[in-house]
Design a protein that fits this description.
This protein is of the alpha/beta class and 285 residues long. The chain folds into 2 domains: 206 residues, Rossmann fold (3-Layer(aba) Sandwich), CATH 3.40.50.300; 39 residues. The protein contains 12 helices and 5 strands. A 5-stranded parallel beta sheet has the order 2-3-4-1-5, sandwiched between helices. The termini are far apart. The N terminus is likely disordered.
């Protein structure tokens, strides 16, 4: 997805949007801002449900206002076997904008990758493979020549292998340019990518930031925000302990039977109204 700066919603540029979306993580947000303000990239990492995507979206909304172009991709496990899919999501919408700056061989290779044709000839060790790598690099540089570029990539662990290699080739060569990269990686999963490997696929001036578990008070605030205001304090403490500070797990526990969110008024369950029994008759002896 590409969003030119002049078409972005001004409401998305306010840093207050980040504060409204994210509970806790103040130190993480501050560190990410320091890194992004200097350029380079940020790699958010942590286990499933810890809040990586929430932080990613908040930072992306904030820094979209400082970028001329925003490129987005979000991988899924079911599509991870499709080659060049992430590159197509990132560069497909801007192909017309960068086509004029690409030599014929590079334009042909990039167009073939983005349209799903010619996969067998785009081998990494062949002529077309080099042309495709150079085309992706040239595309980023061409966009950066127009203004700052923000690349947002969620769930790196499911990026297709071809796109991962192409992005890494380009990212290692765009240091000092106006391209920021904001990525998220799920860790602690079987056969998952490690942080060091992913960090090597970002610009050299990038930083890996761990998304930490929430504290008990922050879990309580999260449950309240999601409508679980009627939970007893003992239940909230138990959820905080059982979830180990994981927001997704805490919300799942809050939705467990008997922990229905408070909506402001209680609704009677539909069905027949229960008839009140008459008082027992007096016994006359």
């Amino acid at each position: 997805m590409t969003v030119p700066h002049d078409l972005q919603d001004p409401a998305d540029h306010r840093s207050g949007l980040t504060n409204e979306q994210v509970i806790g993580q103040e130190e993480l947000l501050a560190a990410a801002r320091r890194r992004l303000d200097r350029g380079g990239g940020v790699l958010l990492h942590g286990p499933a449900g810890i809040g990586k995507s929430t932080v990613l979206r908040a930072l992306a909304a904030e820094y979209a206002g400082k970028s001329r172009t925003v490129l987005r991709c979000s991988a899924t496990e079911s599509e991870s076997h499709l080659p060049f899919l992430a590159i197509a999501d990132l560069l497909g919408p801007v192909l017309d904008r960068v086509a004029g700056s690409l030599p014929t061989a590079q334009h042909t290779a990039l167009e073939a990758a983005l349209t799903g044709h010619g996969e067998t000839v785009l081998q990494p060790d062949g002529h077309h493979g080099l042309a495709l790598r150079l085309a992706v690099l040239a595309a980023f540089r061409a966009l950066a020549s127009e203004g700052p570029v923000l690349v947002v990539a969620d769930d790196l662990q499911w990026l297709d292998r071809a796109s991962t290699e192409l992005l890494g080739f380009a990212a290692r060569r765009i240091n000092g340019s106006r391209v920021r990269m904001l990525c998220a990686l799920r860790t602690e999963s079987p056969d998952g990518l490690d942080v060091g490997t992913c960090l090597r696929g970002l610009p050299h001036d990038s930083e890996a930031l761990r998304v930490a578990p929430l504290e008990r008070a922050q879990i309580s605030a999260l449950l309240t925000r999601r409508g679980h205001r009627s939970l007893p304090r003992s239940t909230v403490r138990a959820i905080g302990a059982a979830s180990d500070g994981n927001p997704m797990f805490a919300l799942e526990l809050g939705r467990a039977p008997g922990h229905r969110p408070y909506t402001g008024r209680q609704h009677r369950r539909p069905g027949r109204r229960r008839r009140r029994r008459p008082p027992p008759a007096a016994v006359v002896s």
